Amino acid sequence: MRKWIWKALDEVVNKDVYSNLYLRNHLHEVDEKDRALATRIFYGTIQNYRYCKACWSKYVKNKLNPKMDVLLTMSTYQLLFLDKVPSYAIVNDAVNIAKKINMKYAGLTNAVLHKVKPIETDNMALKYSLPDWLYKMWTSQYGQEKALVMAKASVNILPMYVRRNVLNTNESDFDLDMFVRVQDALYIYKGNDYFHHDYYQKGYMSAQDEGSFEIAKFVDPQENERILDCCAAPGTKSMAMAEMMHNKGHIDAYDLHAHRKDLIENDAKRLGIDIIHAGVQDATEFKSSNMYDRILCDVPCSGYGVLSRKPDIKLHMVPEDMDTLIPLQYSILNNVCQYVKVGGTLVYSTCTMNKKENEKQIEKFLKAHKEFSLVEEKTIFSNATQDGFYMAKLVRK
Ligand SMILES: C[S@@+](CC[C@H](N)C(=O)[O-])C[C@H]1O[C@@H](n2cnc3c(N)ncnc32)[C@H](O)[C@@H]1O
Question: Where does S-adenosyl-L-methionine bind (predicted)?
Answer without folding.
Answer: 255, 282, 298
